[in-house]
């Protein structure tokens, strides 16, 4: 009888050990657009695997419209995918965009994103991004274009129309 109890306790422990193991949440699905193959992507990613910033571009001819919104996504292979909002903007507009995305990221441990452009590796990149406690990782891919980001209850997009163009996305 004590031997049976030990076996049951061992099985319960093993079950708990494997059920508590965190699964990889990063998932990417690519879709065809009318003109190009695999240029529309939906990503499911942990919020902690997203880093964002407003880059200052030194371009005198553009006056104060010199900021670029950038987001960096860490995949399961510890590779970084850069994402940008492709229009240069004032610093205040870029920071407003950053803050709206940050609110979405704080509301859920996992988010779903819609991104555009071909997902291609960039063999010339030497850039490295710091994800804090997750570590520093190389930027392996060319930039994608940001469309929208959603939790189960809320979406944000730089263009409301884009929220409805991605498979599985809807306005909340």
Keywords:
172 residues; alpha+beta; 8-stranded mixed beta sheet; 20% helix
Helix run count? 2
Radius of gyration, in angstroms, nearest whole number: 20 Å
Helix-strand pattern: HEEEEEHEEEEE
The tally of domains stands at 1
Number of strands: 10
CA-CA gap between termini: 57 Å
Explained architecture:
The protein is α+β, with helices and mostly antiparallel strands and 172 residues long. It has one domain (24-164). Helix content is 20%, strand content 35%. The protein contains two helices and ten strands, in the order αβββββαβββββ. The strands form two sheets. Strands 1, 2, 3, 4, 5, 6, 9 and 10 form an eight-stranded mixed beta sheet that branches. The longest helix is centred in the first third of the chain and has 18 residues, at 2-19. The protein is globular and about 80 Å long. Residues 15-22 have low confidence and may be disordered.
Question: What does this entry show, briefly?
Answer:
With 172 residues, the protein is of the alpha+beta class. It has two helices and ten strands; from the N terminus they run αβββββαβββββ. The protein has one domain.
């Amino acid at each position: 009888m004590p031997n049976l109890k030990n076996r049951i306790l061992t099985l319960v422990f093993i079950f708990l050990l494997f059920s508590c193991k965190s699964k990889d949440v990063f998932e990417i699905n690519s879709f065809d657009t009318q003109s190009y193959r695999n240029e529309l992507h939906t990503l499911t990613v942990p919020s902690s695997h997203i880093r964002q910033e407003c880059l200052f571009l030194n371009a005198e001819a553009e006056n104060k419209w010199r900021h670029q919104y950038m987001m960096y996504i860490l995949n399961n292979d510890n590779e970084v995918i850069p994402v940008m909002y492709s229009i240069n903007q004032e610093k205040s507009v870029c920071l407003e965009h950053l803050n709206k995305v940050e609110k979405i990221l704080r509301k859920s441990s996992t988010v779903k994103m819609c991104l555009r452009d071909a997902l291609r590796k960039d063999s010339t990149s030497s850039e490295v991004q710091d994800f804090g406690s997750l570590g520093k990782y190389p930027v392996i891919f060319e930039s994608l274009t940001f469309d929208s980001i959603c939790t189960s209850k809320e979406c944000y997009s730089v263009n409301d129309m884009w929220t409805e163009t991605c498979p599985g996305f809807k306005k909340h």
